[in-house]
Amino acid sequence: MMGTRVAFKWSKKITPSQVVHLIKAEKNIDEALAIFDSATAEYANGFCHDHSTFGVMISRLVSANKFGPAEDLLDRMKVEKCDIREAIFLSICRGYGRVHRPLDAIRVFDKMKEFGSEPSQRSYITVFDILVEENQLKIAFRFYRHMREVGIQASVASLNILIKALCKNSGTMDSALHIFREMPNRGCPPDFYTYGTLINGLCRFGKITEAKELFQEMKTRDCSPSVVTYSSLIHGLCQSKNINEAMGLLEEMKSNSIKPNVFTYSSLMDGLCKDGRSSEAMELLETMVSKCCRPNTITYSTLIHGLCKEGKLQEAVEILDRMKLQGLQPDAGLFGKVISGFCDVDKFTKAANFLDEMVLGRTLPNRLTWSLHVRIYNMVVRGLCTKSDLSRAFLLYLSMRTRGISVEAGTFETLMKSFCEKGDLQKAARIVDEMLIDGCIPEEGAWGTLVSAFWDQRMVQETVELFEVELMRDFTAPDLEIQAEAL
C-alpha cells in the first residue's frame, strides 16, 4: 500500500470523479484501497469522500468477497455523515447472495433504516429474490408477507419471484398456477418470465401435458418463449421419453432464430442416449460444436454413459479424450463407467490402465461414488487374475491397500488361488496373512487349495519324507534294542 502512495502523485485539487476513475482502473483490490485511503491523506483538511467514491470502493470490495472491509466503509460513511444511497446497500446484499449467504443479505437490508435510508420496492424485491434463489423458502414467504404489510404493492417482478418459490415443490405448484391466473386481475399481466418459470416447474414434476398447454398459451399471448423456456420443455419431453417431439422443438427454435444453448443440446443427447440412440447423440454433438456451442462436463458425461451402455467403448474413450483436450477433467464416476464397460467385455488390462490414469491424475471418488470405486477395483483385480496377468493384479492389489480401498473376500481368494497355481507360495501366504489381518476368514475350499499347494512343493515333500524317516527311527530303535537283549 505504501508503495502505491509513494509512486502516485495527486493533483493539487482532488475531485471525486478523479478518485472514482482511478479506483475503477486499478485491477489490484489492495492497491485500489490504497488509492482510496491516500486521497484523503494527501492534503490535510482537503479532499473528503462522497457517496460516489465510497460506493465504487465498496462495490470493488464486494466483488472481491471482502465483505468485512466493505461493511467497515459503510459504518465510516455513517460517522462522516455521508449521503448513503440505497444502491450501496443493495450491492452488498447482492454480493452476499452471490456467495450463498442470504441471512447476511437480510442483516444488511435491516441496517438501511438505522442509516436513515428507507428501503424501496426495489430493495424488498432484491432481498426476496435472494431468499428464494437460496431456497430459504420459509423466510422468503415471511418476508413477502412483511412486504405486503408495509405497503409494498404487488408487481409483475414480485409475483414472478413468488411463483418461482412456489414452483420449487410439487405440493405448491397449484398455488403457483392460482397466482398466475390471478395476475391480470391485480393489474400485473404475466410476462415471458412468468410462463417460463411455470413451464420449468411443471416439467420438473413430470406434468408435461400441462407444460405443453401453457407453452401454446404463451405463444397466443404474444409472449415469445426464450431459449430457457424451450430448453425446459425439451428437457421435460426427454425425461418423459417424448424424444421425437423434443427434436421437433429444436427445429422450431432454429426456425424462430432462437439459438439453442448447452443445456438444450445436453438434454436432447441425454434423451437420445437413454433411448438407445447414441449415434444420433454423437451427430448432435458435431452440430453443437459447428454452431460454436461449447460442450460442458454434463454433455460429455451424457454421451459417455450412453455409449458405454451400448457397448461402444472405443467411441466412449474418444469422447473422454475430447473432453480432456478441452481442459475438462473427468470425475471418478465417469472413469468408473468406462472401466466397468471394459470389465463387461473382459478387457481388464485396459480397465487397469484407466485406473492408473485416475491415480496419476489425482481423480478421487467422492462419498457417493466411493462404493462404486471399491467394486471396480476388486472386479479389475479378479479379472486380471483370470486373464493370467498376475503381476499386474498384484500391483493393483498393493495400490488398493496403500490407498485404503477395501479388498473383498472373493478378491483375496482369487489372488491366493492364482499364486498357488503359479507356485508362488510366498505371495499366497502373504495374501492369507493380510486377509486375516483385515478380519476376513478364507473359506474351507481356499484353505484346501493353500495346503495342497504347499504339499505339492518338492521341498515340502522332501521335508515330510525326512520327517517320516526320523519318526520311523524313533519307533523302531527300542524294538531293535529289545531284540538284541533277548539274544
Automatic annotation (TrEMBL):
GO terms for molecular function: mRNA binding. InterPro entries: PPR_rpt, TPR-like_helical_dom_sf. Keywords: Repeat. Pfam families: PPR, PPR_1, PPR_2. PPR repeats lie at residues 85-119, 155-190, 191-225, 226-260, 261-295, 296-330, 373-407, 408-442. SUPFAM superfamilies: HCP-like (SSF81901). PROSITE patterns: PPR. PANTHER family: PENTATRICOPEPTIDE REPEAT-CONTAINING PROTEIN 4, MITOCHONDRIAL-RELATED, RESPIRATORY COMPLEX I CHAPERONE (CIA84), PUTATIVE (AFU_ORTHOLOGUE AFUA_2G06020)-RELATED. Belongs to the PPR family. P subfamily. This is Pentatricopeptide repeat-containing protein At5g46100. It comes from Herrania umbratica.
